[in-house]
Amino acid sequence: MADLREHLCDVPEDRIRLYPTPGTATEEESLLVAERGEGLCELVDGVLVEKTMGYIESNLAIELACIIRNFLDQYRIGKLFGSDGPYRLFAGRLRMPDLSFVPWTRFPGRTLPKGRVLAFAPDLAVEILSEGNTKREMQLKLAEYFQAGTRLVWYIDPRDRTATIYTAIDHEEKIDANGILDGRDVLPGFTLRLGDLFARAEGPP
User: Fold this and answer.
1) What is the pLDDT of residues 53-93, one digit of tens each?
2) By three-state DSSP, how is residue 170 classified?
3) Could you give the CA distance from residue 55 to residue 108 in angstroms, rounded to a whole number?
4) What single string gives the DSSP state of each residue in 3-54?
5) Banded pLDDT at 15 (limits 50, 70, 90)
6) Which of 98, 106, 124, 135 is least enclosed by beta carbons within 10 angstroms?
7) Mean pLDDT of the 34-39 span
8) Minimal CA–CA distance to 63: which of 181, 187, 166, 188?
């Protein structure tokens, strides 16, 4: 197990599924976990790795999704997907960002492809960090996203109320509650003060 955890960048043991046997799991088995209502599992080199998200992280993801969705209702430039929308970044590597965006220009004829997995990386990937995420794990994900073609990544940390904006694996900007989540050329015109997102998630309806 120690060697497996090392390979998975220190992912806690309770997030590693031992059935199917690590190293033998398939994309189909990852999808079946969600279909059975047993949570979400990413696929990493034949290993099913559970995604972690508590109610705080889930609430933040939903509120951010609502804000971006409202923006997309006005500027119909692409589609927003939730955490149960998987992406095949590489063979044997299935990732499920908490939120993701893909412009219509990526879909021929502005038509969503058939199937349950998108066979490319999102243009924007958003991860809401939880206590179960390790630094090395998130560094690995970041490298994978950009290697596969993602252009913008937001890592939002509810514990210290900050976010890190990546436009490349080696180009980051960390913001506090007064900073702005900027859609750059991926979501052109979209801006959101980070503190407003937290206020919306924490305040009354």
Assistant:
1) 889 999 999 999 999 999 999 999 999 999 999 999 999 99
2) coil
3) 36
4) HHHHHTTS--GGGB--SSPTT---HHHHHHHHHTTS--EEEETTEEEE----
5) very high
6) 135
7) 92
8) 181
Exposure class string for 58-70: b at 16+ Cβ within 10 A, else e: ebbbebbbebbee
pLDDT at 1: 87
In terms of Cα–Cα distance, which of 66, 62, 115, 111 is closest to 88? 115
Q: CA–CA separation, 50 vs 28, rounded Å?
A: 15
Strand partners, 166: 153, 172
Res 12: pLDDT: 94
How far, in Å, CA of 128 to CA of 177, rounded? Answer: 15
Q: Which two tokens stand for residue 84?
A: 């149960």
State the pLDDT at residue 142.
98
* Burial status of residue 41 (CB atoms within 10 A of its CB: 0-12, 13-18, 19 or more): buried
Dist CA 65 CA 62 (whole Å):
5
Residue whose tokens read 């060697």: 3
Strands 99-103 and 47-50: unpaired
Q: Assess whether the previous peptide bond of 20 is cis (omega < 30° from 0).
A: yes
One-letter identity of residue 61: A
Note the pLDDT of residue 19: 93
